[in-house]
Amino acid sequence: MTESITSPWDYAPAPESRDVAGLRPSYRMFVDGEFVDGSGQSLTSVNPATEETLAEVAGASAADVDRAVTAARAAFESTWATMPGSERAKYLFRIARLIQERGRELAVLETLDNGKPVKESRDTDVPTAAAHFFHHAGWADKLDHAGYGANPRPLGVAGQVIPWNFPLLMLAWKIAPALACGNTVVLKPAETTPLTALVFAEICQQAGLPAGVVNILPGAGDIGAELVAHPGVDKVAFTGSTEVGKSIQHRLAGTATRLTLELGGKAANIVFDDAPLDQAVEGVVNGGFFNQGHVCCAGSRLLVQESIAEELLDRLRTRVSALRVGDPLDKNTDVGAINSAEQLSRITELADTGEAEGARRWTSPCPLPSQGYFFAPTVFSEVHQSMRVAGEEVFGPVLSVLTFRTPEEAVTKANNTPYGLSAGIWTEKGSRILWAAQRVRAGVVWANTFNRFDPTAPFGGYQESGFGREGGRAGLEAYLDV
Amino acid sequence: MPTPPPALPGDLAEATRDDSTLKRFLHGLPGVDRVGLEQRAADLATRSIKKDSKLWAIDTAIGMIDLTTLEGADTAGKIGALAAKARRPDPDRPDTPPVAALCVYPDLAATAAEALNGSGVGVASVATAFPAGRSSSRVKLAEVELAVSAGADEVDVVIDRGAFLAGRYGQVHDEIREVKAACGRAHLKVILETGELATYDNVRRACWLALLAGADFVKTSTGKVSPAATLPVTHLMLGAVRDWRDRTGLSRGVKPAGGIRTTKDAVRYLVAVHEVAGRQWLSPELFRFGASGLLNDLLMQRRTQLDGHYSGPDYVAVDQ
């Protein structure tokens, strides 16, 4: 389908102002209520859209981990655990409001550091992060009513390690419930995206949060390993790759440390032949390409019923061609930059195996910027279960399309994965939604929508996608001694 | 010359054979998920259109306006004033494009045709017992004939919503067919009155019904019922004409009408046209705005874009 008449309407650039990020040449780590120099190797944060250096960030050492855990322990024992829930709630509400007030700054900084489109950091990451603090602030004085008996106790010091795909949002998912339940926190942001976490530390100061309740330690994987294995840590929460998750679980086996893991996924988005087609296409695009596909619950496996496969694919390619890929700071950009050169080469390698294994590769004809780490949205059709692109998590804007004939086959294929984080079901038939949702082994099942996040809804996985829930009443269990 | 009835592909021609095949066809269309449609419309509404793109959008939107007056109190004098404005919306800035058409009641179509003679601005007339559509076929057809003979280039007709909601699709179809024949050379815009159709599924069915019956345009509303045009409904209709083009190769237009008052609104609709239907639809041949107040806001914004500062409502002509 070609457009014969063209208009001059290529949207003029609409860049968000970079200045509002308040970017500084260097950032320090946050321990015991103070910004301090780290004694570890410092990090360099790079803007993945331009490859320019954004800032030098203090890196933590093993000794810093020890200091932070000690500070968190002291804060836990002297103030936070003994403070009435209604008082803790005030701090959380204050933090939530400050996130909103500094929302634009956080959104632009997140986009600079991570490469995601500012449309998403502005409309999803920052508001949802604030929502998690509001939600958990409300729980802080109602834990008696959470279903875990009277007066449930906090665990102590939580060591939390988060990924680079939603830096501020993952921080909120981790810190808000921990604090609401009376725990104190040492959090390590991802090596490539530490900046918003350090602005969050400023917000903690602004909110008057007692020293030591929240500590932020930038660092690489080795610091994460130090933190999770520290004997002063009572609870570990990790979001990241299944590989690292397994090593943490191995490390903590036989210890008293509590553990929750939120790991990889290869979610099936199942489109039945009676689906609302246009909205299913939107949901498939969202599932595959939201946040450049850097989403652990991404709907990266499209399972479509054979009778509509061709029509759906046609519509899908047309729709994906319209995605605007480019400058993440432009308010009209739909798909931004891949977070790092390393991730880009991993995506490129996996996509090449798809082609080598005989899947049909289609790439969006969108223009790509000459600088920065970009990958054009890609759809593989004629994919079979045995191919690597069908089984492995790509964590990039790559969608694999498989077909099915019967609902049973759809469920079998959807469940044929070591993961089990999320799934999507598209049909106009309510009974089929319930039938499929009961059979799909996934922690989150979306019906006629995808990638909808809400602090009231528990999120978490089956099998190698991890265990434990974040959000909702169920999510409190991970931070209470029950 | 009268346009011959379009040659539809076999399955579509078959769909209109009788009442029951028509019903099967319309009810076999894919469903519309309300949440998803509204979310998509809201997402696209966040597009940020600036500078040259905004100026282009303003001029394009001006050229797509069916400048409308559909009041019991309309007079020949008001039609004359609006016709002058339709030709030259901003006399201080003669490079401002004229609007697409002037939309009036059938008894004033002759007045409008005379006032617009030779200007290139079309005359659109409502017909078929607008806005309720409650009359006999005979009366409705007579009204179409009145409008066309008075010089209307475009006829905006309403469908019989009562018949549609009762499932008498054949009756609605045949009525549109007859109206289309009575239109002769005039373009036919079929008003679905989406505010009365209750569900998006019904809007999609009504779109296809109108297209099968030969509509040149599908139009959301009369402007007399609330809600009138909305972004989600327009998204849905743009999707229908896009699908129609894919199935038949024929390009049909969409006209949201009622409730679109600001430049910001208009730009959002144009973004939807651009990204849902495609660039080809960014033309008055295939997209119109049914509006009265919108033009003045577009003119003020146009001045602002060119002058670099706001002027004010006193610098554009009021429509009274």
UniProtKB/TrEMBL annotation, chain A:
Superkingdom per UniProt: Bacteria
Family: Belongs to the aldehyde dehydrogenase family.
GO MF annotation list: aldehyde dehydrogenase (NAD+) activity
Keyword Cell inner membrane found: no
Ranges for domain Aldehyde dehydrogenase: 35-481
EC number: 1.2.1.3
PANTHER family: ALDEHYDE DEHYDROGENASE-RELATED
The entry's keywords: Oxidoreductase
Identification of the protein by name: Aldehyde dehydrogenase (NAD+)
Database matches in InterPro entries: Ald_DH/histidinol_DH, Ald_DH_C, Ald_DH_CS_GLU, Ald_DH_N, Aldehyde_DH_dom
Keyword Phosphoprotein: no
Active site residues of this protein: E262
Automatic annotation (TrEMBL), chain B:
GO function terms (MF aspect): deoxyribose-phosphate aldolase activity
Listed SMART domains: DeoC
Keywords, ordered alphabetically: Lyase, Schiff base
Catalyzed reactions per annotation: 2-deoxy-D-ribose 5-phosphate = D-glyceraldehyde 3-phosphate + acetaldehyde
EC number of the protein: 4.1.2.4
Pathway: Carbohydrate degradation; 2-deoxy-D-ribose 1-phosphate degradation; D-glyceraldehyde 3-phosphate and acetaldehyde from 2-deoxy-alpha-D-ribose 1-phosphate: step 2/2
GO BP annotations, alphabetical order: carbohydrate catabolic process; deoxyribonucleotide catabolic process
Matching CDD domains: DeoC
Tree of life domain: Bacteria
GO cellular component: cytoplasm
Pfam families the record matches: DeoC
Family: Belongs to the DeoC/FbaB aldolase family. DeoC type 2 subfamily.
Protein name as it appears in the record: Deoxyribose-phosphate aldolase
Record organism: Halosaccharopolyspora lacisalsi
